Amino acid sequence: MDMEQETGVKSLRNKEKSKQKFLDAVEKILHTKGFSGLKVNDIAHTAGLDKKLIYNYFGGKDGLIDEYIRSQDFWSNIKDNSAETLVNDGGKTFCKTMLLSQFDYIFKNKNTQKILLWGLIENRKSLKKLANDREENGARLFEGLTDPYFKENAKRYRAIIALLISGIYYLDIYATTNDATFCGLDLKSAAGRTEIENAISFLIDKSYE
Amino acid sequence: MDMEQETGVKSLRNKEKSKQKFLDAVEKILHTKGFSGLKVNDIAHTAGLDKKLIYNYFGGKDGLIDEYIRSQDFWSNIKDNSAETLVNDGGKTFCKTMLLSQFDYIFKNKNTQKILLWGLIENRKSLKKLANDREENGARLFEGLTDPYFKENAKRYRAIIALLISGIYYLDIYATTNDATFCGLDLKSAAGRTEIENAISFLIDKSYE
DNA sequence: TATTTTTATCACCAATTGGTGATATATTGT
DNA sequence: ACAATATATCACCAATTGGTGATAAAAATA
């Protein structure tokens, strides 16, 4: 059971490396073909390994997919910025930065889009866990920062953020799948995206008036 | 070729009725199992007819699904209200009513949710046509009402509406698939939904200040 | 080196899926 | 009643899919 290997030279057969190949294959297929393309045969072929290993290592397709989802660190892109930006403006600048960076991040990260979409279609436990992480992360922000600031209007502000976040999600995904415009705005063009960014800024500002 | 039948008694074999059975089957399966459940065998069995007819009447599964999508009159729920509500307030009350009724309508209409979701996943021509209808419908509103009102800020207002509509879509779909909360709000409860409605009203009001 | 364990492949299975040609049955027109 | 046509069923196929037992090959251990 000694897994230690001092040199960088790895053996030809390596369980951990193989598991990773399967996870990478899931990501690749998800990116190119979407959920419906996630078939065991296809995954195994993409990983360059035998499908039997999926059952040996992950207990089946579902286990593999769950592990892939768990491997996605959903909130890493936010936590970075959050650090110690707790200026005493009721979370205004923080929320604004967070929403704008989300708008950009989700647009660029097709895998994150797929996982978000997945959460609207299936009811996987591992997907629920992701959503739960988001909620817990948000709870800290709301309870510690915005709720005390908005007092009796705290819930309305939460609703505003909910609308903006989910609007951002939808528009980014829509822009990726469709070439069409949305409300006459080209969400793939810099100009169109700037309009959305302006609207986000504007609405946050107005919410603090 | 004489299709006229005076009495209510229909013949056992009726092409139009059979086609409708297939369309109904698609709706039923879409509602219960989602897109991934739309298999020719399953559709035929649900319709109580032979799958061969799907190929005879619709040219295949895709043709049937396209015809189902086309059969969905997406904007009927909006056009009703729109009639002649053109008060000269820059479309404020109209937009507000429209958004609130959408929030309610989409929540109750699971089929509409599925089709919206579909538009985020697949790139079907028939789905594009639906999106196009929405755009054309919106164009009339924007060009005739809000653009003249907001002048140089016209595009920002469009972006605001884009964010709110897509936020409404996402939240309604999310609420249906997940039991979890979003930003700490229970989107299935009357209380939670009222908060969202208040936020929508609030943001529209603020946009017109 | 010989043995044991881990890692990976292979051949094969049953069930599902999309698809079609041959055929049966009902309806219509003569 | 008869033929012609429209409607529907059936049996069957090939390809795909999820899944597994037997086995090979590499690595670790003795």
UniProtKB/TrEMBL annotation, chains A, B:
Gene3D superfamilies documented for this protein: Tetracycline Repressor, domain 2 (1.10.357.10)
One Pfam family matching this protein: TetR_N
Swiss-Prot/TrEMBL keywords: DNA-binding
InterPro entries: Homeodomain-like_sf, HTH-type_TetR-like_transc_reg, HTH_TetR
DNA-binding region: 39-58
Superkingdom of origin organism: Bacteria
GO MF annotations, alphabetized: DNA binding
Residues covered by the HTH tetR-type domain: 16-76
Record-given protein name: Regulatory protein, tetR family
Record organism: Pedobacter terrae
